[in-house]
Amino acid sequence: GESVGLHLPTLSVQEGDNSIINCAYSNSASDYFIWYKQESGKGPQFIIDIRSNMDKRQGQRVTVLLNKTVKHLSLQIAATQPGDSAVYFCAENIGAGNMLTFGGGTRLMVKP
Amino acid sequence: KAGVTQTPRYLIKTRGQQVTLSCSPISGHRSVSWYQQTPGQGLQFLFEYFSETQRNKGNFPGRFSGRQFSNSRSEMNVSTLELGDSALYLCASSMGQGNTEAFFGQGTRLTVV
């Protein structure tokens, strides 16, 4: 995911529904991926990660899917709650070191 | 366990000045990375330090520099500030060897006037 500019895609869901946030990453050599949640005025908060030797990983109410063939990552949030409202970023890393490349972000809005 | 601590939280500087930001990583973490976040460019990697050595560097001018101390605390410095340097500067801490969870601080909001 190349960082992109002003336009932030928005996903609006009803409380209790499932949310799916998508991300296209840029480098086929990337071998580690992280999803972050960022609330207004705060730093990004780690949600879940996945390595390139996996295609699915589950956490508490969240699932990350990785499709290396099309360089696509998705974050699924089950039973979305108002507290899930935030901007979500995917990030990719290659090899040694911690040099994350971030996508542009998606704003999730949860309607009560 | 304390999280990543960044100081100060807010800063206002004048064009041409320099600024130093500080980051204390999570205890036991040896890698510290710095990122710049702006509405126009999103989150962009500045540099990473591991065991007091710069391990990776992003595509920023030489006015942006950093260092890491033996206790893993890190500082970044921006010299000759420009209006475009106004941003949220974020620090992330990791255990160290790469491809491990990176945890962010709250950031330092820098405004250049």
Q: What descriptors fit this protein?
A:
heterodimer; A: 112 residues; mainly beta; six-stranded mixed sheet; four-stranded antiparallel sheet; 50% strand; disordered N terminus; B: 113 residues; seven-stranded mixed sheet; 11 strands; 0% helix
How would you characterize the overall build of this protein?
- The complex is a heterodimer of chains A (112) and B (113).
- Chain A is mostly beta strands and 112 residues long.
- In chain A, 0% of the residues lie in helices and 50% in strands.
- Chain A is built from no helices and 10 strands.
- Chain B is mostly beta strands and 113 residues long.
- In chain B, 0% of the residues lie in helices and 53% in strands.
- Chain B has strands at residues 5-7, 10-13, 19-24, 31-38, 42-50, 53-57, 64-68, 74-78, 87-94, 103-104, 108-112.
- Classes of the chains: A mainly beta (112), B mainly beta (113).
- The A-B interface holds A 3-6, 31-32, 34, 36, 41-46, 49, 51, 89, 91, 93, 95-105 and B 4, 6, 31, 33, 35, 39-45, 48, 50, 55-56, 58, 90, 92, 94, 96-107.
